[in-house]
Amino acid sequence: MRRATAWFILMVLFGLIMTGNLAAETWPNLEKKLDDWLGAREVQLVSEAGDPLASDELLPLIEVLLKHNYAVNTASETSASGEGLLVEIRRLDAQTLIVLKRASDHSIIALERMTNERLPAVVAVPGPVASQQTVTPPPPMPMRQQAPIPIEGSPISLVWLDESSGSDATLALLSKAGVALCRLQERQLQKLSVIAPPKDGLRPLSLSRGDVDGDGSFELAAVWAEDIYSVYDGTESNIWSQLIAVEPQKLTSLGLQAGYVRLFDSLGVTQRRGTYRPFTGPVQQLLYRQGRISTGQTLPWGEQNIFSLTPLGDGDGLAWLRAGILSALSMDTGEPLSGGTILEDLGHPQTAQIAVRLEEPEYRSGFGKEDQVLERYISLPSRLVAVGAHSMLTINRGRKSGTFLLGKPTGEDRLVRLTKNTDGLSLDYPFPAVPSFIVDFTLVPGKDSFGALSLLNDKEDASGQAYLLYQTVVAPY
Question: What's the domain count of the chain?
């Protein structure tokens, strides 16, 4: 009898989790913002439907709002308070959009589609009158994709080190074991040289490449987190950056610096780790001369941190304004460009994280020591890589880790290209999606092609089986 009762309870719990999981998969962006909202739990539903409760299309949306403990007002002549939310239903030619806004200033905080088809992305156009603009992706391009190559270890970042693509390629991989110089030949990865982490117990965060000293050879910058644990104060991540010279079949350590370092083709930048903040101070130029690492002039960086913004050209940059949301902005002032904010939520990987102690403890439920939260974890955003003039490539995180009972992850990741046009910012997807987590990627140059080598993993934290996947598009691209 006890076994039967226990089995019945387990099946009920499984059914509830399945139901909750399916509901969450319906409108994940919307439901996450509803959960995170700290203002008044009331929503004004704006729709052309006379009676939303009688609409088969709107009823599931109302049920989701009620499930998250929101009072839903469907009367057209009333509005939500300044602390509440607005849900607006926008009907376009080929799709219906759910637009979640703050009632106080009508800023859009989430966007969902009420269809399952992949449709043109919606671009925000700042101005006194709210407007929308659709961007149609270009026609399909000739595309080639190889089968994934399984690799050992659990790398978290990679960079391409050759000037062009070919069957014999050189790349560098960052993992807990250090930085490895590798040759990829005929689907076989051979390690040529390995530089160990500069200290014991470090966690890898990011890897970048560039020619800092102008000698025509690449240098690498590996960023590491040193976690300092304290029962009373919480966990704090000290940041270290390791500068490495790339020689034929060999890596040589050039030095170690506190703080973050990021390298571009002919530029190195650095920024400090803050107290109770992941970043502090200006972004400065990194110099390497006569065997010494030093800092140079302060650079205009759009009031962003060293990883959130990447220069786009003409004094503009592309920046992660918040998790999953990209915007083109002025590097001098930090002001978003007209039409330069993509409403498409590109997701937010949780792979490379920094522990930041809180100045004042927070509490989960009670006020006991076991309820204290002493630190928060900040995730580094997805890599942004320039693709020709005024375009960049990054990751669209559409894959999600599995639940406790279901176990298997769902969804797909893919690379997305963003292009700054005269009328704003557009996006398109040059490569097919993959049923795996894209942990990182690197651009693969080619004379008549545009390619990317992605670092895949079975698990979101990059602790599972790793793979390399090469995808390429034949010009024009």
Answer: 2
Q: Is residue 10 domain-resident?
A: yes
Q: Where in the sequence is the domain holding 202, given as residue range(s)?
A: 163-299+347-381
Amino acid at 128: P
Residue 109's closest CA among 36, 53, 160? 36
CA-to-CA separations, 189 to 168, 192, 442, in angstroms, rounded:
10, 10, 16
Residue 334 lies in a domain: no
∠ CA 186-189-191 to the nearest 5 degrees? Answer: 140
**CATH code, domain with 38:** 3.30.160
CB-neighbour burial class of residue 203 (10 A; exposed 0-12, middle 13-18, buried 19+): middle
Instruction: State the sign of the Cα–Cα–Cα–Cα dihedral 451, 399, 416, 224.
Output: negative
Residues 94 and 198 in one domain: no
pTM of the model as a whole:
0.70
Considering the domain architecture, whether residues 262 and 376 belong to the same structural domain is answered as yes
- C-alpha span between 263 and 220 (Å, rounded): 7
Last residue of a domain, which of 337, 360, 381? Answer: 381
> Does 169 lie in the same domain as 101?
no
* Cα–Cα distance, 263 to 277 (Å, whole number): 22
Mean pLDDT by 10 residues, the chain (477 residues): 46 43 57 81 79 75 84 66 78 74 81 52 28 39 70 94 72 96 89 95 96 90 96 93 93 95 94 95 92 92 96 92 90 90 87 93 72 90 90 93 76 93 87 94 82 93 93 69
- Name, in order, each residue with C-beta under 8 angstroms of 468's C-beta and a sequence gap of 6 or more: 148, 149, 151, 184, 189, 453, 454, 455, 456
Tokens (6 digits) for 8: 């019945």
Would you give the DSSP letter of residue 23? H
